[in-house]
Amino acid sequence: xxxxxxxxxxxxxxxxxxxxxxxxxxxxxxxxxxxxxxxxxxxxxxxxxxxxxxxxxxxxxxxxxxxxxxxxxxxxxxxxxxxxxxxx
Length: 88
Hints:
Elements: H1 2-67, H2 73-87
């Protein structure tokens, strides 16, 4: 009789601990998932900003080249190409 009562107590205790642990694990997983999503979003925003800056820079190079009469165009684009190669 005592063994049965002890067994029931152990089963209830184990079930309670498992339930609490699962809830805690689910909460931590959701928190980590939201952090990961925010990091990915920030990375994409950074890439988009960087692409916009690169386009603006190239547009400025073209404007300067056109204003200089085209003589600097090849030099400026060669400089751009060398810088792009250095970053890769």
